[in-house]
Write a structure and sequence with these properties.
Layout lengths: L2 E7 L2 E7 L1 E3 L5 E3 L3 E7 L2 E9 L1 H13 L20 H25 L6 E9 L5 E5 L5 E3 L6 E5 L5 H7 L6 H18 L7 E7 L7 E5 L4 H20 L8
Helix pairs in contact: 1-2, 3-4, 4-5
């Protein structure tokens, strides 16, 4: 199990992913799930991965090595470095997902092993603002819009309420990162399959501002403070809310 979150806001793009993998109740390990797929003068593209690890690793490798040319007569491989738009980048990733499904996924399913996966693809190409896509295991995808400016994959249910209540397109990046930490804290409190370290990427819409990347370690003091203060405030708010009158 894992938890990944992407938020597309007026001020920029935020992507977060935990690093825990689970192959059984007594087999937890750590693996990076926030991946830099393309980094150049005119593009920066990241992906968060959730689901069967062998499937998502195959997809990431296919993307980095490039997909076969569409024409049998050509030896040129297609890669994210050639994509003209983020939509075209999402199409290439979707094609890689389909290839992984026909190979690794089919072999896993023959052994009754779940091959499900999901990917968050985010970034920007050229002068366009950042974009965020949710990729499904069939290779299809949807694009993040202002009405609901975030996507989740993996263990989503525990961390969603704070996002529904607080995150809007106009939310400043710093506030959104704080809400993201609260979302991860809620997921970790209710599911041992989600845990720090958490990888974070913040891509401001303003290209003059640098992209921020950071790993939130197990002993990160700010995350610890956020978790404790949120817990204390919840306890205090619960005590201050009147009891049901019918319980008197």
């Amino acid at each position: 199990m894992t938890y990944c979150l992407g938020m597309l806001l007026d001020e920029g793009l935020i992507m977060m992913a935990d690093t825990r993998t689970n192959a059984g109740v007594d087999n937890f390990s750590m693996y990076r799930k926030l991946h830099l797929l393309a980094d150049g003068p005119d593009r920066t593209i990241y992906a968060c991965t959730a689901g069967n690890l062998s499937v998502t690793q195959t997809v990431m490798t296919l993307i980095r090595e490039g997909l076969a040319a569409e024409s049998p007569e050509s030896d040129l491989r297609r890669s994210l470095h050639d994509a003209g738009t983020m939509f075209r980048a999402a199409q290439l990733v979707g094609e890689a997902i389909q290839i992984a499904g026909r190979t690794v996924g089919k072999a896993l399913e023959s052994l009754n092993i779940s091959a499900g996966s999901a990917i968050l693809l985010g970034g920007r190409i050229g002068n366009q603002p950042p974009s965020l896509f949710l990729m499904y295991d069939a290779g299809n995808f949807i694009q993040c819009k202002r009405e609901v400016p975030f996507f989740q994959i993996g263990e989503t249910k525990y961390g969603r309420p704070i996002l529904d209540r607080e995150v809007r397109s106009a939310t400043p990046l710093a506030d959104a990162v704080k809400c993201g930490f609260l979302s991860f804290d809620a997921a970790m409190a209710s599911n041992l399959g989600v845990a720090r370290p958490i990888d974070l990427m913040v891509m401001p819409t303003d290209r003059r501002r640098p992209i921020l990347t950071r790993r939130i370690e197990r002993d990160d003091s700010y995350f610890d403070e956020v978790s404790k203060r949120w817990s204390d405030l919840l306890h205090a708010a619960t005590r201050e809310i009147p009891n049901p009158p019918f319980m008197d």
